[in-house]
Predict the structure.
Amino acid sequence: MTKAERDAEFTVFMSQAAPSLSRTAWLLTGDAERAQELVQAALVKTYAAWPKVRKDSALAYARRVLINQRTDTWRSTHAELSTDVLPERASADDSVGVDQRDEIVRLLATLPEQQRKVVVLRYYSDLSERAVADALGISVGAVKSAASRGLAALRATLTTTHGGSR
């Protein structure tokens, strides 16, 4: 395969994978700018490894790179992102959906990093427990535990915030 063919193949992959990776990154970071930086870094690393990446698992590979980048960034800063800063609203017409989305991001930001990753990958990205375990390099039992604890924390926060009305 020539470099031009490889570049064309990666360009197609990138255009298909970028929206999913962007949403996952945004849910993990809670910040649109940081999410975009995370996706770009993950795609650069995926491109560098592209000749070795199995095409049937390219999205899983890129997602794993994205998660590792997020972990590295988090470890280097040792700080959670502020939950006070939210992305720009899409439009006034979508205010109900945007309000719910903003609330979800705020709630996810309250979770410990590992629980947030598990909840986002398991329930937003709709990965199996095994796929989440593989993506994070942890056991299936750890995925189940983190998912259970994360969901319980989200339920408790919603009950406290909304008086169980949801």
